């Protein structure tokens, strides 16, 4: 009886050791399922740290954060190529490494000129020793924090962690596709990366070198908004792609009017000014420089030709209950066009009496041209004070 108990205990121990050694299905290096209960909250960990051990180090991180950070920062993969992906439009830079392959990595910029938009996108291509194509398509950009959170709720994608970054993975017939939340850019905006790793056909998942490229990228990815060569933009407010800027305040009818950066889902920032008027009725007058648009957007039906502040384009004016809106599309220079707005509202914050508010709305309805003109004057002053520049060639190289 004692011998049988002893043998049972031995078998249980052997089984436990074999299960621990097995470890289950292998995941890409640098990623974990977000449902993995062995992971603790690492939101305060330095985002530049590289997890190369693939073991649970949460307790060590809490006890020795400085030592872990210093060690991680000095770990550079052997036989690797450093990649710096800089987005100078929004002033952010990602750094990561790729394994050195049989063919040197080639880089091609896919960022658009028509229009110049917020993402900075590159394709990196190489080949393994057998001549099999290895391709990584990577975009660095930013969007509203709420928009990115909704993107990461994609029900068709697998929720994972890439180091300390929340992310999703979509596996298609030809690629692994990652969306990685790189954390706050400014209040209300988050940086993120889209990265796709492709082998050219449905056998991509069996290409060891492509998996190695993916794993090293995920393991070494870091991001910063403080990098060498960053343009000094102090003292001015910039629209999202960095081609339009205004001083912090501008003069309008003898007064200093604040220039406001407005969060924008697609353009990062729009630039806005706002003034109040009481003649002949209380109004709130706004003007906005929104985002860059394609050349063919200047050829729209239902618009009239219009020139403002020396910029030609098209305009559509619309009356609504309590406000009138002028929507313009302007050609700023040879390579850049912009959507801009001029809107005059009845100031219902001041007109709290329903009878007075209704009378003001009727006044605007009876004489809309006066109120169109108020906001167009503000927009003209804004465009005159704005500095527009051509896209920088390096953005497309």
What report would you give on this structure?
The protein is α+β, with helices and mostly antiparallel strands and 397 residues long. Helices cover 22% and strands 40% of the residues. An eight-stranded antiparallel β-sheet has the order 1-7-8-9-10-6-5-4. A hairpin with a 2-residue loop joins β19 and β20. The N terminus is likely disordered.
Give a short synopsis of this structure.
This protein is α+β, with helices and mostly antiparallel strands. The protein is about 20% helix and about 40% strand.
Can you lay out the helices and strands and say which pair or pack?
Elements: H1 2-22, E1 31-33, H2 58-63, H3 65-74, E2 80-87, E3 92-99, E4 106-109, E5 120-127, E6 133-144, H4 145-151, E7 158-162, E8 165-171, E9 175-186, E10 189-198, H5 208-220, E11 222-224, E12 236-238, E13 244-247, E14 249-252, E15 255-258, E16 260-264, E17 268-277, E18 283-293, E19 304-308, E20 311-320, E21 323-333, E22 336-346, H6 354-366, H7 368-385, E23 387-388
Antiparallel strand pairs: 1-7, 2-3, 3-11, 4-5, 5-6, 6-10, 7-8, 8-9, 9-10, 12-13, 13-23, 14-15, 16-17, 17-18, 18-22, 19-20, 20-21, 21-22
């Amino acid at each position: 009886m004692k011998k049988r108990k002893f043998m049972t205990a031995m078998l249980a121990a052997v089984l436990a050791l074999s299960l621990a050694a097995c470890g289950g299905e292998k995941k890409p290096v640098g990623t974990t399922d977000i449902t993995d209960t062995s992971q603790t909250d690492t939101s305060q960990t330095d985002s530049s740290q590289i997890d190369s051990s693939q073991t649970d180090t949460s307790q060590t991180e809490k006890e020795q954060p400085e030592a872990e950070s210093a060690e991680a920062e000095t770990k550079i993969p052997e036989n690797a190529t450093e990649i710096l992906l800089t987005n100078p439009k929004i002033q952010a830079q990602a750094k990561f490494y790729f394994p050195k392959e049989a063919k040197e990595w080639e880089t091609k910029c896919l960022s658009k000129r028509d229009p110049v938009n917020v993402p900075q996108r590159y394709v990196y291509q190489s080949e393994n020793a057998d001549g099999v194509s290895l391709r990584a398509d990577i975009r660095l950009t930013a969007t509203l924090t709420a928009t990115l959170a909704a993107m990461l709720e994609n029900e068709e994608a697998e929720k994972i962690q890439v180091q300390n970054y929340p992310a999703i993975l979509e596996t298609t017939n030809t690629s692994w596709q990652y969306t990685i939340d790189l954390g706050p850019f400014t209040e209300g905006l988050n940086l993120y990366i889209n990265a796709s790793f492709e082998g050219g056909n449905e056998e991509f998942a069996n290409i060891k070198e492509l998996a190695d490229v993916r794993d090293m990228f995920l393991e070494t990815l870091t991001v910063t908004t403080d990098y060498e060569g960053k343009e000094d933009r102090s003292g001015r407010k910039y629209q999202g792609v960095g081609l339009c800027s205004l001083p912090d305040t501008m003069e309008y009818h003898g007064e200093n009017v604040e220039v406001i950066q407005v969060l924008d889902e697609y353009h990062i920032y729009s630039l806005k000014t706002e003034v109040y008027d009481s003649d002949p009725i209380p109004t709130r007058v706004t003007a906005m420089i929104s985002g860059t648009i394609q050349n063919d957007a200047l050829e729209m039906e239902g618009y009239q030709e219009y020139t403002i502040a020396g910029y030609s384009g098209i305009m559509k004016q619309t009356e609504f209950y309590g406000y009138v809106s002028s929507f313009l599309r302007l050609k700023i220079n040879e390579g850049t066009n912009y959507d801009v707005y001029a809107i005059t509202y009845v100031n219902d914050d001041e007109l709290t009496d329903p009878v007075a508010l209704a009378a003001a709305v009727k006044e605007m309805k009876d004489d809309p041209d006066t109120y169109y003109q108020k906001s167009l004057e503000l927009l003209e002053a804004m465009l005159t004070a704005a500095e527009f520049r051509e896209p920088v060639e390096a953005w497309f190289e």
